[in-house]
Amino acid sequence: MGERASPEVIENIRKEIGADKGFFIQYVGYLKLLVSGDFGRSYYTNRAVMSEILAKFPNTMKLAFSAMMIAAPFGIIMGLAAAYQKGGFIERAIDSFSIAGLSVPVFWSAIMFMLIFSLHFKLFPPSGTGDIRFLILPALVLSIPAMATLSRVTKTTVMDILRMPYINTARAKGLSPVKISMVHVLKNAIIPIVTIIGLDFASYLNGAVVTETIFGWDGMGRFTMDGIIKRDYPVIMGCLIVGTVVFILVNLLTDIIYHYLDPRIRLHVKDR
Amino acid sequence: MSKTGKISLFVISVFFVVSLLSPFLPVHDFSRVDLDSLKIHPGIEHPFGTDNKGRDICARVIYGGKISIGVAMVAAFVSAFIGFTVGLASGFFGGRIDTALMSFVDFVLSFPSLLLAIAISIILPPGIYTVMIAISVVGWASFARLIRGHVLTLKDMPFVEAARAMGCSNMRILFYHIAPLCVPLGLVMMGVKLSGFILTEATLSFLGLGAQPPIPTWGSMISANRAYILTEPWMVIFPGLAISITAFCFNVFGESLKERLDITGKRL
Q1: ipTM higher than the 0.85 cut
Q2: Are A145 and A103 in contact (CB under 8 A)?
Q3: Residue B177 distance to chain A (closest CA, Å)
Q4: By CA distance, what is A207's nearest residue in B?
C-alpha cells in the first residue's frame, strides 16, 4: 500500500488490524496478546517481535556474561587491594580508576576502544557478531563501569569489616592474614558484592543498548536501538517489556541467593 | 570539604560559567556552517578543529555544556523536590500513606533506569524538556527513599517530642523542625546524582532522543561525528572528554560531600 492507496483499501486494512474500534478495546486486545507472549509484528520487517527477541536474547546473554566474567574478579581484587593498602598510592590509583570508570560514558569509551584497538592496532574486528574476537571489545567496554562500582563497594564493605571486633579476635587467635581475609572478611562482604553483581548483570542486559549498537553485536540492545531509530513501536514495546521483566527477575534471583549465603537474613524473615 | 572536592567544584564552575558567557566570548558561532573550513585539524584558529560542515567544535562543545549541565541541574532540582516532598510525607505520616508512597517508589525503582528514561523520551516529542522529564521521573525515587529514612530517625528525637509538648501542630513540626534538617542530605544527594544525570542526558542525546539539531549537545555531537573517527578523530574525542571530565568532577565533588556528612559507602 503506498501513499496513493484508495480509501477503501485503507478502510479494509484499518478493519483488519482493528484500528476502527475504540481505544480501550484496542488496548485490551493488546494486553491479551501480550499475556500470551505475542508482541505483534515489526512495522518494517513484518516478523513477529517475540521470535526476533528470542533469537537475539542468547547473544545479549553471552555478552553480559562475558562482561561479568571480566568485571567480577578484577573489581573484587581491586576493592580488596584498595581496602588493605589504605592511604597508599595503590588506594589512590584504584579510587581514581573507579571514579573514572563511572564517569566516562560507555558510548564514548566504546568508540575510543574501537579506534585504538581495532582501527589503529588492528587487534580485533571493529564490529560484527561471531566468535570470541568479536566479543572481547564490547565485553571489555561493558565491564568497565561495573568493575568500578564493584571495586568501590568491595572497598567500603571490607574497610567496615576490618574494623569489627571479630577481626581483632581472629588476629589475636594468631590466624594468618590470608585466612582472615579469605574466611572472615570475604564471607561477610559477600552480600553487598553479590547485590552489585546482580544489579550490574541486570543493567548489562539493558545497558547493552549502546554497546551493541556501536559494535554491531546482534543482540537485544541493537534490536531495541533499531526500533527506536525507525520508531517501530511493537519492537520498542516488546524490548522494553522483556528488558524490564528480565531486570526484575535477576533482582529477585539476587534476593533469593541471599538466603543461601547469609543465615542472618533467614532469621530476620522469621522474626517478622 | 576535601581538596580534591574543592578543585572539582572549581572546574565545574569554570565550565558552567564559560558556557553561560559563550555569547560574549571570542569564540566562533556554534551553528555557523563554513564550507571553506571543513574538517580542519585542531589548531590556533579552531582549538578543537571543525566538523564535516565546517562548524567550530570548540564553540559547539562550550554551547553543548550549557545544555548538558543545565539539563542535569534542572533534572536534579526537580527530582530532589519531588523526592523531598514524597519522602517527608511518607516518613512523617507513616501508616497507609507511607505504604502507598513507598510501594510506588519501589515500583519506579524496579524498572531498569535507562530503559525507563528511553521509554519516556520516545513517548514525548524529543527535546531538552523531554530529557529533563525523563531523568526526573526516574531520578526522584531514590531521593524519596533516602529522605524518608532520615525523617524516620528524626521523628523519634527528643526535640520533636519537645515541640509537640509545646503544642506545635503537625504541620509546624514537619516544616519548621524536621524539613530543614533534611535539606543538607537532599543537597548532598543532588551533588551525588548529578554525574549520573549528566551521563543519562549524554546517552539520550547520543541515541537521538535529546535536544534536536541545530542545538549541539555533547552526546549528539559524538553520535553525529561517529562516522569520521578514523580520519578526523578530534570530532569525537573532544565532546567525549568534555562529558568525562564534567562527570568525573561531579563524582569527586559528590564523594567529598558524602565524606563530609559521613555517609560514605551508602549506595545513594
Answers
A1: no
A2: no
A3: 32
A4: B114
